[in-house]
Amino acid sequence: MTYWVSLAAQGTFDAWRDAARRAISHRIAPEEIDWHGCGGLFDTTPLPERPGVHATRVPQAFMNLAKSVIWHSASERLPLLYRALWRLDRGEGEPLSPADPLGRKLLLMQKSVDRDIHKMHAFVRFREAPVQASRRRFAAWFEPTHNTLEPGSFFFTRRFGDMDWVIATPRLTARFVGGALSFGPGGTKPDLPEDAAESLWATYFSNIFNPARIKLNAMRSEMPKKYWHNLPETRLIPQMLADAEARVQKMHEAGVSTPRLGAAPVSQRYRSAMPQPPKRIDTLEDAAKAAAQCRECRLCEKATQTVWGEGAADAALMMVGEQPGDREDIEGRTFAGPAGLLLRELLADAGMDARKLWLTNAVKHFKFSPRGKRRLHRNPDRGEIAHCRFWLGLELALIKPKLTVALGASAAFALTGDDRSMAERRGKVEPGIHGGPVLITWHPSYILRARDPATATIARRDLARDVANALALSRNVHEECAKSSKEQG
Ligand code: URA
Fold first, then answer.
1. At 218, is the pLDDT very low, low, confident or very high (cuts 50, 70, 90)?
2. CATH match of 284-488 with 3.40.470.10
3. H and E: helices and strands count for the chain
4. Residue 321 beta carbon below 6 angstroms from any ligand 1 atom
5. Ligand 1 contact via 332 beta carbon (within 6 Å)
6. Domain limits of the chain?
7. Least confident of 10-14, 136-140, 438-442
8. Which of 27, 143, 453, 463 is least enclosed by beta carbons within 10 angstroms?
9. String of b and e for 179-207 (b: at least 16 CB within 10 Å)?
């Protein structure tokens, strides 16, 4: 008797794990399973649906290995993984060791998959679809060596979280629309020469991005056609299709006079397509939405996204850093990287939960210079800080902190308009240009980047003191204010 298993192109790891667990729980031997079966032959049967009585525990190292190897393109990956699981279960040798032929093979497969995912992250080239939509739209065609689109896509959701995008591969297509990632069937390589003009690619991709098509594909993959006639939204399909064609036709016609994409900077190209920020900004949410559209300086063109502040809307203490770093730019969260870790540690030492403050930056976009695969931080200049002061002022006006802490020279300049050196100002409270007191201190990165341990130790001690002082001051001012308003009222 042979048991057959058939795994879908998407969600393959979960499906494999489920099948392997059931098979091992019935003690079904590796040679009894056809991992690429489809049934129908004599003497074959699907795997039992329910687990058997045999319980097994597998090491985490095996699950980690399986999580990579499953995306390898070789069909033997499935029987090989199950054989390793079988041997682990029976205690037969060390099937995960490079000294074991099976282990060696699996480890090589894992390495190859990991490399492929890496390549995808480095070499996917998005092109922008010239459509008027609230989120910018990008698409890419990519041909991975293995089936790595699914595990490789999550990286792009973080990196390009505020855009819509599609990555099409021959086997699978990943769509990230409105913040939701979904997968559909693969496509065929667009029939365009490698050096096709941007306008040709743009036409192709705006076609791919047609919202009607996206819905249609999603519908086809999510729900079989036989159910369509009972679903109200499917009545719109003929109209959607008609619109889709008309739109593509329009693009072809417009193509001749459309300026080449890339000829103008993003700030000029997309200004007209951007939704206008709310006329009145009364809340932090509105302010964050408006800041996400900011194109006032060039920093928006290379940065992944605007990184807005976070914390308590009624914070008595606001801390202002310089600008988001590499991590923050990808995650869209302020102080998400090493400097943030150190800052939170110092706050915790002083008895303060960072969530009770408002943590933000003088500049809301990451400024960097590319060096190979790395993006090296660059200080914002005075003009960039001045442009971004509008947003900082808005945060101050909406939160009304009792005290603001300037972490480092850029924040000190943004908050006070004074660019004297930090050494003479650190630890002091100065009047802010937006009103309200500003305590000047070191930026946590100053400690992390210090060349010698002595400088780092002293700077850390200074910063810890200033943080504790800021907490005490903000509490005092808070209590003073509460007392005087009670007396007056
Ligand atoms: N450095 C900053 O100034 N701000 C951040 O958000 C992260 C690092």
1. very low
2. yes
3. 17, 16
4. yes
5. no
6. 2-119, 124-185, 196-245, 284-488
7. 136-140
8. 453
9. eeebbbeebeebeeeeeeebbebbbbbbb
Sign of CA dihedral 337, 447, 411, 476: positive
Q: What is the pTM of this model?
A: 0.47
CA distance linking residue 244 with residue 249, whole number of Å: 9
Q: Which amino acid is at 123?
A: F
What separation in Å is there between the alpha carbon of 446 and the centre of ligand 1? 11
**DSSP one-letter string for 113-150:** HHHHHHHHHHH---EEE----SS-EEEEE---SSS-HH
Checking if the pLDDT of 310 tops 80, the result is: yes
The tokens for 246 are 């008309």
The tokens describing 27, both together, are: 């003690």
For residues 410 and 441, the answer to whether their CB atoms sit within 8 Å is no
Query: Cα–chain-centroid distance for residue 234?
Result: 32
Cβ(361) to ligand 1 under 6 A? Answer: yes
Length of the chain: 489
349 DSSP assignment: H
